[in-house]
Amino acid sequence: MNHKAKALGLGSCPCCQKINKMTAKRQRCIRCHQVFSQRKEFSVQYTLAWTLAAIVMFIPANVYPMMVFYTLGKPEQSTIIEGIASFIQQGLYPIAFIIFLASFIIPLGKIIGLLILLYNTKNYSKISKRKQTQMYHLIASLGPWSMLDVFVVVVMAAVVNFGFFTSIEAGVGITYFTLMVIFTIFAAESFDPRLLWDIERRKNHDR
After folding, report:
1. What separation in angstroms does the CA of 191 have from each of 28, 112, 114, 148, 184?
2. What residue numbers bound the domain in which 29 lies?
3. Mean pLDDT value of segment 192-197
4. H/E stretch holding 170
5. Looking at the predicted structure, is the pLDDT value of residue 49 above 80?
6. CA gyration radius for the chain?
7. Which residues span the membrane (predicted)?
8. What is the CA 125 to chain-centroid distance, rounded?
9. Same domain for 134 and 197?
């Protein structure tokens, strides 16, 4: 019979990976003395809270300007989409694609992916648990890459600065964008992918 570690009362220490016999909800590892539990406590609640916070930040991040161009002292604001459109008009298609991917598709995909994973911790899904776990690891690994747009703005602001003639400043949208990325990283870190496998065990148990 294929027994799950949780059903056998076993837990893996997140610090040293030592398998412990769980005698309490929170237990001290017999090897490194790290206090841990079988699953991340309040994982779903924390992940949902951080994901909702990221959704709230996603709206102003795309509405408010990310950059402010100054040409002869005249300001010209640019949102993420406007910046992408500007690169396309200049024929800089690779840069436009990278910015669109890193600044819009990846953050939105991470948010949608996290919501799907949260839903699947409570509801059975036809998507295999292995694929869902791979989805989670992909979301977690993409976290730092979502900051690419912020790095581009910072570098451009530092390089393209000729005083009164031409200069670039970060817009208010960059603050919301940064918060959105940070919140999605926190959401991914809060999520426990083992919860996806627990629902399979509960489903089989109910039969």
Report:
1. 22, 14, 9, 24, 11
2. 1-38
3. 83
4. strand 166-170
5. yes
6. 22
7. 48-72, 92-118, 138-164, 170-188
8. 22
9. yes
State the amino acid at position 100 in one-letter form. F
- Asked if 181 and 74 touch (Cβ cutoff 8 Å), the reply is no
Instruction: Kindly state whether residues 32 and 105 are assigned to the same domain.
Output: no
d(CA 7, CA 185): 30
Q: Which residue has the tokens 């919860």?
A: 195
Distance CA 97, CA 103 (A): 10
pLDDT by residue (tens digit) across 76-127?
A: 777 888 878 877 887 878 878 877 888 888 889 999 999 999 999 888 778 8
Helix (H, G, I), strand (E, B) or coil at 26: strand
3 with 60, same domain? no
Same-domain pairing of 60 and 29: no
Distance of CA 123 to the CA centre of its chain: 22
Can you list the alpha helix ranges (DSSP code H) found in the chain?
A: 43-63, 80-89, 93-100, 106-120, 129-141, 148-159, 173-190, 194-206
Residue 3, judged by CB atoms within 10 A of its CB (0-12, 13-18, 19+), counts as: exposed
108 vs 4, higher pLDDT: 108
Contacts of 71 (CB under 8 A, 6+ apart): 165, 166
Question: Identity (one letter) of the amino acid at 119?
Answer: Y
Q: Which of 102, 92, 96, 94 is nearest to 82 (CA)?
A: 96
DSSP symbol at 105: I
